[in-house]
Design goal:
With 301 residues, this protein is an alpha+beta fold. It has a domain at 122-291: Thrombin, subunit H, CATH 2.40.10. It has helices spanning 2-9, 11-29, 39-109, 114-120, and strands at 122-133, 140-143, 156-158, 163-170, 175-179, 193-197, 205-211, 216-223, 236-239, 251-260, 266-273, 282-288. Strand 6 (193-197) and strand 7 (205-211) form a beta hairpin. The radius of gyration is 38 Å and the shape is elongated.
Length: 301
């Protein structure tokens, strides 16, 4: 009892004890059915939440600081790789300009006509696909560029992967593209593409039909007289530029198999088109000749 009275003699300790007892009693009373929190509970939660915020904020800042340092290192590494790529592109551009000057000089020396010059160069006109006609006998797509944009009937149209077709009709601001999957020897509206194997000068053939069952372009008229110029499986087939219809270098597809023709004098190559013919959004019209906007830097190189 003496110790108890002695404790009560300490006023501060006594007041603290009384507050603690009242606080516990109040919380015990409010543990029954109720909605929401009492003010002591709110006080405790707010105090704990504030303390956590004060402690976590510096910790988060320190953690974020080290994360930023790590990401900054990655940015520096990426910048180094980009600088190397830019340097390589600049060297390639110098080489390209040098080769272009050499080619232009050779054309002048050979007295190239304007038609020959236009046929050996090309530029691209970007186009959005407006609609698709999936008619089996006449598959076409409509694009949002037309004669006002320099697009003409007979121009080749490609995707990023390869050739998809030829402009069949135009209006001022739209054009219809007949797909190469409609190529047929029996159709009066069909067309033929003079083709060659990329990197094999002297190889020649005509792509003028499409096999819908095998989903392959057929390249016919391949001569067998020179083994060094024969087209083989795996070759990439591009337009040759012969005949002045399509510019040279438009990718058509990859040779899957080469078979002898009916009489054995020539061969026929079955080509898998590089274009996917699925869900196009953007296409490019191949326009023969140099880009008139190239000098100002506004055109597509």
């Amino acid at each position: 009892m003496f110790e108890l009275f002695r404790m009560f003699g300490n006023r501060k300790l006594f007041i603290l004890l009384i507050v603690l007892v009242l606080f516990i009693a109040l919380m015990g009373v409010t543990l029954g059915d109720r909605v929401g929190l009492t003010w002591p509970e709110k006080f405790v939660k707010d105090t704990v939440g504030f303390t956590q915020r004060v402690v976590n904020k510096p910790a988060s800042a320190v953690s974020g600081f080290f994360k930023d340092i790590s990401e900054l290192g990655q940015v520096y590494d990426e910048n180094d790789r980009l600088r190397i790529k830019v340097a390589q592109l600049e060297r390639d551009l110098v080489n390209y300009n040098q080769m272009k000057n050499d080619v232009d000089g050779l054309k002048a020396s050979l007295n190239f006509t304007k038609t020959q010059t236009d046929n050996s160069t090309k530029h691209y006109r970007f186009a959005q696909v407006v609609s698709v006609n999936e008619d089996v006998n006449n598959p076409t797509v409509n694009i949002d560029v037309g004669s006002k944009d320099g697009v003409e009937v007979g121009m080749a149209v490609t995707s990023i992967d390869g050739m998809v077709g030829v402009v069949s009709t135009t209006t001022d601001y739209t054009a219809t593209v007949q797909l190469i999957t409609s190529l047929s020897l029996t159709s009066p509206d069909s067309y033929a593409i003079s083709a060659t194997a990329d990197g094999k000068s002297g190889t020649f053939g005509i792509v003028e039909s499409y096999d819908p069952k095998e989903k392959r372009l057929l390249m016919t008229g391949i001569k067998n007289d020179d083994p060094t110029k024969m087209i083989k499986s795996g070759d990439i087939i591009v337009s040759s530029g012969s005949g002045g219809v399509f510019p040279a270098g438009i990718v058509l597809g990859k040779v899957m198999v080469v078979e002898p023709s009916q009489f054995g004098l020539t061969s026929t190559a079955k080509i898998r088109p590089t274009a996917s013919f699925v869900e196009w959004k953007e296409l490019f019209v191949v326009i023969p000749g140099p880009d008139p906007n190239a000098a100002t830097g506004d055109g597509t190189p």
